[in-house]
Amino acid sequence: xxxxxxxxxxxxxxxxxxxxxxxxxxxxxxxxxxxxxxxxxxxxxxxxxxxxxxxxxxxxxxxxxxxxxxxxxxxxxxxxxxxxxxxxxxxxxxxxxxxxxxxxxxxxxxxxxxxxxxxxxxxxxxxxxxxxxxxxxxxxxxxxxxxxxxxxxxxxxxxxxxxxxxxxxxxxxxxxxxxxxxxxxxxxxxxxxxxxxxxxxxxxxxxxxxxxxxxxxxxxxxxxxxxxxxxxxxxxxxxxxxxxxxxxxxxx
Length: 252
Known about the structure:
Layout: H1 4-9, H2 13-23, E1 28-32, E2 35-39, E3 50-52, H3 61-75, E4 80-83, H4 91-97, E5 100-111, E6 121-124, H5 129-135, H6 143-151, E7 160-167, E8 170-180, E9 183-191, H7 200-214, E10 219-224, H8 229-237, E11 241-251
C-alpha cells in the first residue's frame, strides 16, 4: 500500500486547486485564458478572487491583468488575485508594480485521518444557526462572509456535510466537509474557547474523515492560516503535511 509521503510526491497543486473550486462555490464564474475569475458577495477569499490554473508562460499577462481588474470593477467588487504554485511566471512582480499589496493566504495540507464515529456528532444538511454560532467564536463573521456560507448549500455540486459536536448539550465544535472523488476537503473547523484543549479538534477530524470515507474519499485536505500555530500543531499531530501555500494580492 502506498504510504502518505509517496502519495504526496505524486500529488501536485493542480489537483487540490480543482478540488477547492468544487468545494467552495461561487455563483459568478468567468475565465480569461488560464485564470478563473470567481465572485460572490466579496467575503470569502477563494470565492472572490482570480487565480491561474496553468503555470506556463503567459505573454498576454499584462493585458490579462487589466481585463481581470475591469471584470471585478463591473461587478462592483475589489480586485483580488490568489497566488499559488500555478501562477504564470512574473505575476507577483507585475501585481506589485500595479500597486497591489500582499496579504496572508493559507497553507494547504493533506493527511489520512483515522476514521471515528463520535457519539457527540450532530450532522446537519447545511450551515444552520447552531453551526454558525460555533464558527462565529473562531472566525470573524462579517455580513458578507455569513451570507456566503448561508447561500452556499444550493450551489454545492459535490456531496457535503456540516457537523456540530455537542458536549453536555452545548454546541462545542463545528466543521464542514466536501467529498470529491478520493479527496475529502475539511473546512470551517472551530472549537468554542471554553472547550479548547480537550481534544475536540482531533475528534472533529476523525468524524469528518469517517463521513468522507463513506463517500469513497480516503485522503483529507484542509487549509490553515500560516500564523495559526495551535491549529497547525493539531493537524500535524493528526498526520497532516503541507503540500503548498498560497497568498493574496489586493489592490491598494
